[in-house]
Amino acid sequence: KNLKEAYKPGIWDKTVIDEKINIKDEDAYATTRELVKQEGIFVGMSSGAAMYVALQKIKKLKKGLVVALLPDTGERYLSTKLFYS
Predict the structure, then answer these.
(1) Ramachandran bin of 64, using left for φ above 0, alpha for ψ from -120 to 50, beta for the remaining angles
(2) Which of 3, 9, 28, 38 is the residue whose CA sits 20 to 30 A from 52?
(3) DSSP secondary structure string for all residues of 13-68
(4) Cα 61 from chain centroid (whole Å)
(5) Closest CA to 47 of 5, 81, 77
(6) Are 27 and 50 in contact (CB under 8 A)?
(7) Taking the model in full, what pTM does it have?
(8) How far apart are CA 17 and CA 13, in angstroms?
(9) Whole domain around residue 44: which residue ranges?
């Protein structure tokens, strides 16, 4: 799935967004796999993308709090190449 073309729900309002960050699909996939392997959190590609961006933001902060919401589960991706190496 191309995350740049992801579904946007009816409540989506781009005027309230502070920043939009596009990442490579492979970075989202790799982060998804790491969450599963290292943390035991069975998530999908959208969650991998969210965590990837959060980790990038953390590197730039001197102090503060970063919260990443993980919006999906890995269950729907079991039949895809995401979890096969």
Answers:
(1) left
(2) 9
(3) -GGG-S------HHHHHHHHHHIIIII-----HHHHHHHHHHHHHHHH-SS-----
(4) 19
(5) 77
(6) no
(7) 0.82
(8) 8
(9) 3-83
Q: One-letter amino acid identity for 69?
A: L
Tens digits of pLDDT across the chain (85 residues): 555 567 778 898 989 988 889 999 999 999 999 999 999 999 999 999 999 999 999 999 999 999 999 999 999 999 888 888 6
CA-to-CA separations, 9 to 6, 14, 83, in angstroms, rounded: 10, 11, 27
pLDDT of residue 17: 87
* Tokens 């969210």 sit on residue: 50
d(CA 64, CA 54): 12
> In one letter, which amino acid is 4?
K
**CATH classification of the domain holding 25:** 3.40.50.1100
pLDDT reported for residue 14: 86
